[in-house]
Amino acid sequence: MMWLMHKSLYQKMDSAAELVSLPHGPTFDLKMTSAEDLLPESREAVQAVANDLRNDWQRAVVFEQELSDRMPDLHAALERGRRRLLMKVRTHPTSSPWEAITLAQDFAESIFSDDFSPIYGTSMVRDLSSGEVARLVGACPINWKVKAANGHN
Amino acid sequence: MATTSPIARLAALLATSNAEPEITAERLVPSTLYDLDYRVVIVAAAFQMHAVADRFSPRPRIQNTRLKLLQFVAMRPWLLPTIRHWSANRGDSLRLIDGEEGLRKGFMTDTMHDKVMQFIAASGALRREEVYVVPGIKPDVLQGLRSVAESNSLFRSEIAALSEMLSITVTNDMLEGW
Question: Does residue B97 sit within a domain?
Fold first, then answer.
């Protein structure tokens, strides 16, 4: 039912997403290259994850533009949600930062579901959440680097 | 479910490596749509380029809803073809396409603009007069903003969009509820 209601939006996201240019520079792509270097035996797995994140991010950008053009108030809700997501990933009392990063998608889904699930359904919220998490990687807050031999960075 | 999301898969992979995670306090750059300074300049440019004096008003004035539409499109110049199509087919509702309905819905619900206008009115640059927006007691503020933008070649795509809007007929029917 949700798909029928938003059929044109889904189609637009499918067709327009691949044309979206993501920010270049020392961001997403370099981080993924660094992950590949850290995991030479899992290079393909890292590339697959990077592709998924990149696609979700591109779809999230199309969705964001749709909100901005048609529903500015919901766009404002998205903007607020982003801030809350970053805060939650940074401050969640987990045993390790990896765990917080692992849970980032869940945090995002719980944050965005209030505003977006009733209108767009859980599937869209899942895509949006993954795209916004990818944005956190691409826009710097989530990062990783090689551990120094003494355990310090 | 967490283990199946792309970020969870990536974290699981990296956790087995010699990588140390880092979550910085870096602030995400907010959309310019929420930048008050930016929006004030766009309103200033829209008012100065589109407000006109007429036989009922010696001062330049513009319908509030028209100003709302103009600034909305100026910040989203990719909507120009949509509004041009809407204008060309304004008498035939059957020929309106989904994008035009979206544009109409979009600019009418731009509540941020209403807040920006409250700010501008409080500053004395513009004020509401029934359905119109007219210069306030300090109209020079807006002129100054536009001059600064022009002399520094700022917001060129927005100004170009406002300029293009001069050639597009926007009727009162399109500004429903004006």
Answer: yes
Assigned domain for B1 exists = no
Interface with chain B: mutation pick from A42, A49, A58, highest number of B CBs within 10 Å: A49
Encoded tokens for A48? 């697959």
Whether residue A140 and residue B103 make contact (CB cut-off 8 A), yes or no, is no
Closest CA in chain B for residue A79: B30
Chain-chain contact of A69 with B106 (C-beta, under 8 angstroms): yes
Q: Which of B28, B19, B12, B30 is nearest to A136 (CA)?
A: B28
With a cut of 50, list the residues of chain B below it in pLDDT: 1-3, 178
Q: Which domain holds residue B74?
A: 31-165
Q: In angstroms, rounded to a whole number, what is the distance separating the alpha carbons of residues A113 and A109?
A: 6
pLDDT digits (tens, 9 = 90+) for A126-142: 989 999 988 888 777 77
Instruction: With CB atoms and an 8 Å threshold, state whether B14 touches A52.
Output: no
In chain B, the residue whose alpha carbon lies closest to the alpha carbon of A40 is: B17
Q: How many domains does chain B have?
A: 1
Radius of gyration of chain A (CA): 16
At A27-79, the pLDDT tens digits run 788 888 888 888 889 999 999 999 998 888 888 889 998 899 989 999 999 99
Over residues B147-174, the pLDDT tens digits come to: 888 888 889 999 999 999 999 999 988 8
Query: B13 lies in a domain?
Result: no
Q: Do A27 and A138 form a contact (C-beta atoms < 8 A)?
A: yes
